[in-house]
User: What shape does this take?
Amino acid sequence: MGDFFEDLGKRITETAAQETTITKTEEVVETQKIKSQIRVEERNKERDLQHLGKLVYDRFQKGEVIDTVFVELCEAVAQHEDAVQSYLKELAQLKGMELCKNCKGELESDMAYCPKCGTKVEEEIHFDTEEAEETTADEGVDDSAMQTVEETETVSEEEV
Assistant: This one.
C-alpha cells in the first residue's frame, strides 16, 4: 500500500513538472513571436527609410524643391515605429516589466533609474495594478482613521 502512495506522489510531481515546462515553453514561443514581429517591423521601416532617402536624394540631384511629397512614406515609417514600440511594451509586460519613458529600455519594479539612459524612474509607474488598488484602498483607510481620531479629540475637548 505504501508503494501505491509513493508511486502516486511521483506521478503527481512529474505531472506538475510537465505543466511547468509547458508553461515555460509557451512563454518562450510567445516571446519569440513578438521578437519576430519586431524584426519584421524594423526591416519594413528600414526599407521605407531607404526608399524615402533615395527619393529625396533623386529630387535633390534634379534640383527639385523638396516638399510634402514624402508625407506618405514618413507616415509609413511612423507606423512601423509605433508598431515596434507596441511590441516592445507587450514583450516587457510579458516579462513583468515596464518601459522607460525616455529610451524605452526595460525597467524592473525596484529600479530607481533606467540602466540604459540613466533617467530617474517616475514613482507613478505601477508594475502591478493590484498594488495600485491596494495603495488607494490603504489611503482611504488612513483618511477614515484620521477622521475618527479628529472626532474623538473634538469630543474630548467639548467634555472638558
Q: What stands out?
A: Helices lie at 2-62, 71-94, 129-159. The chain is about 70% helix and 0% strand. The longest helix spans residues 2-62.
